[in-house]
Amino acid sequence: MGMLDVVGPVMVGPSSSHTLGALKIARFAHKLFGEKPDKVIFYLHGSFAQTYLGHGTDRALIAGILGLREYDYRIKDAYNLAKKENLNYSFVKTDLGDVHPNTVLIRMEKEGKVNEVQGASIGGGAILITKINGVECELTGDYNTLIIVNKDKKGALENILGVLEVNIANLYLKRTNIIEGKALTILELDEIPSNLEKLNNLDCVLRYFYIGSDKE
């Protein structure tokens, strides 16, 4: 049993599931996007949709998309922070299907750039990122994560793994566009990669995003 099991997570907000988990999902989305989006839509499912105002899920999601950590006391002022940052956001109640009741789909947009992250808050502040741009996965956020848009061709994955020189904890791969010949590769890494720039030399890599773990 660890300290977290005894005293609970360090956080600002009333609920580890509806506040802390929501913030961590949105912060993951923030790090994936890499910049402040012009527009964000939070699609709320299940209990998130029913109680997001009363449990502070709304403030947690806004705070996370602005990059705040769970112990930042500015979370309670998330609406004012969003106004200062000129962040255009909206909350939409929806049915995302057969998913965890504490699930949110976050859509971020800026000048034609669009990213979507779907995640669930599964209790005690723990999360699962279940989709990235439509690709199903199960990311906890506890690992350093590398997301690669690559050409869908023979040998692409072998070439990518060949230059990273790190141990892979989990790997997800899916063809995303048959016509354009694109695939999405998601890697959870046991360590911080020191040679990501080598990916720029691979013809099969179109672009990539690195998301460092917040785990301390």
UniProtKB/TrEMBL annotation:
Cofactor: [4Fe-4S] cluster
Keywords of the record: 4Fe-4S, Gluconeogenesis, Iron, Iron-sulfur, Lyase, Metal-binding
InterPro entries recorded: ACT-like_dom_sf, ASB_dom_sf, Fe-S_L-Ser, Fe-S_L-Ser_bsu, Ser_deHydtase_bsu
Gene3D superfamilies: D-3-phosphoglycerate dehydrogenase, domain 3 (3.30.1330.90)
EC numbers on record: 4.3.1.17
Enzyme class: lyase
BP term (GO), one: gluconeogenesis
GO molecular function: 4 iron, 4 sulfur cluster binding; L-serine ammonia-lyase activity; metal ion binding
Catalytic activity entry: L-serine = pyruvate + NH4(+)
A Pfam family of this chain: SDH_beta
Domain Serine dehydratase beta chain span(s) in chain numbering: 10-77
Similarity comment: Belongs to the iron-sulfur dependent L-serine dehydratase family.
Name of the protein described by the UniProt record: L-serine dehydratase
Source organism (scientific name): Marinitoga piezophila (strain DSM 14283 / JCM 11233 / KA3)
